[in-house]
Amino acid sequence: MNQARRIVDFAPDTRPMLLTVVHTEEEFDWSKPFDRNSRATTHLCELGRVREIFDRRDVSAVYMVDYPAASDRTAVAALNTVARTGKAMIGAHLHPWVNPPFTEMVSNFNSYPGNLPCSLERAKLEKLTTRIEQSFGHRPMAYLAGRYGFGERSLSVLQDLGYRLDLSAVALGDFRSDGGPDFRAYDSNCFWDGTPPILRIPHSSADVGFLCQNARRLVDIGRNAAMRRLHVPGALSRLGAVRRVRLTPEGFSLRDLIAGAQALIAAGIRVLVFSFHSPSLAPGFTPYVRDLHDRDEFLSRIDRFLKFFREECDGQSLLPDSVLAAASCAVHP
Prior knowledge:
Layout: E1 6-7, E2 17-24, H1 47-56, E3 61-65, H2 67-71, H3 73-83, E4 88-94, H4 118-136, E5 142-145, H5 154-160, E6 165-166, E7 191-193, E8 198-200, E9 205-208, E10 212-213, E11 216-217, H6 225-229, H7 232-238, E12 243-246, H8 254-266, E13 271-277, H9 292-312, E14 316-317, H10 320-330
Parallel strand pairs: 2-3, 2-13, 2-14, 3-4, 4-5, 5-6, 6-8
Antiparallel strand pairs: 1-7, 7-8, 9-12, 10-11
Helix pairs in contact: 1-9, 8-9
């Protein structure tokens, strides 16, 4: 990580804070090429199901809304109903292929906002910011790049448009296979970046298992080509030696989520990001929820993890503005 970035140094006795982040976006087939015509948001009628869980567990959530979700009248009404509770916040989520202006070719590379020319990345986020302000009555202060595509110029774009918090990075993540960013040097600590400072909070990831310490693997065998050819990383995962866990109910079991959260908290991480994509609230839109049984299991994992975090971790659920305030008190940018 760039040495100019300043890690937020929370006091050891700070209660763990959970940011629950919903990637609120259009429905599209994840196995097919990106399509500018895939803009439907019919699944957002299912928001009530997860909202019941959030209410029961006293959880606040930030809905990172992309252009189709901020433009559809029914979706906006559903999200405004949630936002009026005072326990939700609307942020900006930039999917370039469905966000005007439409001047770039649709491709995997261009699906990462940070790969676009700076002027186009800024123009798209400005359009999205304005649309959110028109639909929800306020300018967003939190940003999430589509496909986690934070680039070299993204920070300056956020500063120009008055954003204060970014959720685009994925701790330990690597999206280089089709032109995306490399976050392997990022751990799950939040940090101030730039001047004026933006608080950047990576999506939480942890390495768990008996070959791990402080939520990191002691030896990164996955970087060794010979070991990969011999399938050593997979074998170690099956043996429980090392497994990478993202704090998301998409593709991870409740046991994984608990192990990941425990490892991060033990390592001193005090702001954790628990996230999922809104289309997973209805069957058939993501690989994680194919039918009603998957949907019920998915919602159950969310419910049980949130219960665990509050009751077993003495955790608190906060919105980005409260996390910003806590970070400002912990260390002055």
